[in-house]
Specification:
Blueprint lengths: L5 H5 L4 E4 L5 E14 L7 E2 L4 E2 L11 E12 L8 E9 L9 E3 L2 E3 L3
Antiparallel strand pairs: 1-2, 2-5, 3-4, 5-6, 7-8
Length: 112
């Protein structure tokens, strides 16, 4: 049986999450295009901090074209009428089935 994770929640269409001050942020999923992988090796990182992983992930994927989705969250307007919207996460869909484990640092873990 697959247990839902926060990552699953980030990609549930028309979802909602609780923000830092008990406000409810809406969640929507947008298609961002495709990732064309020639070599099948993936390096991950955070573009805002400049941090990259220590080289490619342990598991390679077959070269190909893979769809990319964005999880976009929106905070309702505050007392000043200002709303906030941002990309919370991105994912590459390598297959249509649900993952039940994730590789981390070269080893498999069954749950994050």
């Amino acid at each position: 049986m697959h247990e839902r994770t926060d990552f699953d929640l980030a990609f549930s269409a028309n979802g909602a999450v609780e923000g830092s001050w008990d406000e409810i942020w809406s969640v929507r999923v947008e298609e961002a295009g495709h990732l064309d992988l020639v070599g099948g090796r993936i390096v991950v990182g955070d573009p805002l901090t400049g941090g990259l992983s220590d080289g490619p992930l342990a598991r390679a994927v077959p070269p190909g074209r893979y769809p990319v989705d964005l999880s976009v969250v929106r905070r309702p307007p505050d007392s000043g009428g200002v709303a906030d919207e941002r990309v919370a996460a991105a994912r590459v869909r390598f297959r249509s089935t649900v993952n039940t484990s994730w590789p981390a640092n070269g080893r498999e873990i069954s749950r994050l």
